[in-house]
Sequence to fold (145 residues):
Amino acid sequence: MKRVDVAYVLLYDEIGENILMVKNKGDKASYYTLPGGAVEQGETLQQAAIREVKEETGLDVELDGILTVSEAFFEENGHHVIFFTFRGRIVDGEITILFPEEIEEVTWLKPQIAETHMHIPSELKGEIKEWSAPYIFRGTVVHKS
Fold:
């Protein structure tokens, strides 16, 4: 199976009540996710998360650590996907759909509804606003022989 890394970002509105979600156009049906997507070659997880939010929503964000790490096997396309969900905050921009062929809608959802689309552990439901772990990029390591 091919490994694919995906970076998502959890974003709250200005008053901290709603979560930003994107409605993706799927082959069979549309579905909601947090803004995010696949990490490209040579990109860090953070860079991918920031880029994907910009591409999908038009917003500029800063990241505040990791909320969850999860994984799944997608037998249909032979992918082993690792999902990294960051916490973030909006620092600039306006909601804009830059790729209408991929994104149907960008919307704010109540946490109880958003959580049903987020694939988070049951013990975090209702608690995601409080939970975070640090993310550390350790740089490029070159071993000398």
Notes: Residues 45-57 form the longest helix (13 residues). The chain has one domain: 2-121. The chain is about 15% helix and 40% strand.
